TrEMBL record:
Alphabetized HAMAP family for the sequence: Adenylate_kinase_Adk
Protein name (record): Adenylate kinase
Subunit structure: Monomer.
Family: Belongs to the adenylate kinase family.
Pathway(s) this gene product operates in, as recorded in its UniProt entry: Purine metabolism; AMP biosynthesis via salvage pathway; AMP from ADP: step 1/1
Keyword Cell cycle: no
Lineage per the UniProt record: Bacteria, Pseudomonadati, Pseudomonadota, Alphaproteobacteria, Rhodobacterales
CDD domains referenced in this protein's UniProt entry, alphabetically: ADK
Span list, region NMP: 30-59
Record localization: Cytoplasm
Amino acid sequence: MNIILLGPPGAGKGTQARRLVEEKGFVQLSTGDMLRAAKTSGTEMGKKVADVMARGELVTDDIVIGLIAEQLDGEAGKQGLIFDGFPRTLKQADALEALLAEKGQTLEAVVEMQVDEDALVDRITGRFTCAKCGEVYHDTTKPTQKPGVCDVCGSTEFVRRADDNAESVRVRLSAYNRQTAPLIGYYYAKGKLRTVDGLGEIDQVAKDIEAGLGL
Ligand code: AP5
Ligand code: ZN
């Protein structure tokens, strides 16, 4: 089963994708993670996108579609996939459909996670991530159990994202409303949309997503 997690920045897409990977054996394809990895490893593409990402604007369709196409050509393309943060424009949505069709695959469902804007800003400005394993935490809603030590891998190094500041968050929210929100109607019209209240506790949201997908 291939699914999309759709929602504004901070809605909890990454958090829920990781749970579905651990508990249900999905493979997560996050274009945000791929772009950050390209930036960290200093590739030409990584250098090109760094400023755009830090400002909170969308990277060009061609770059992200290329990243997803590469993944679908590789091993990842053979499993149940979660698209996290992709597609974000109608052009990306059309490209995904074509890429999956080339592999004889389909998209089963699109889970839209709804969270209001005040909560999104709180979530994003409180987020930190383990530098070693990528586990995502939050200062108040999901702190580490032992202060300063990752629950998953024991690392003591954490990072905060360059685009997790109030100014970039405003740009990211407006990019979502203008360029990505039209996908809600697009997938509704195809009968694939499942809407979940993303404001509840992490466990409750996970249960609602599983129920929506019939897992
Ligand atoms: P990307 O990395 O995709 O970021 P995003 O969409 O802005 O989403 P986030 O990662 O901020 O949020 P999330 O929904 O995953 O929330 P999380 O689970 O971490 O994209 C970054 C940039 O890359 C873009 O701005 C763009 O420049 C570029 N880009 C990426 N894909 C692109 C594409 N397809 N096209 C063009 N450009 C692209 O949760 C947030 C926080 O809340 C965490 O601290 C978490 O612990 C906490 N939390 C989660 N769930 C709950 C809950 N239920 N209750 C309380 N707290 C919670
Ligand atoms: Zn860790």
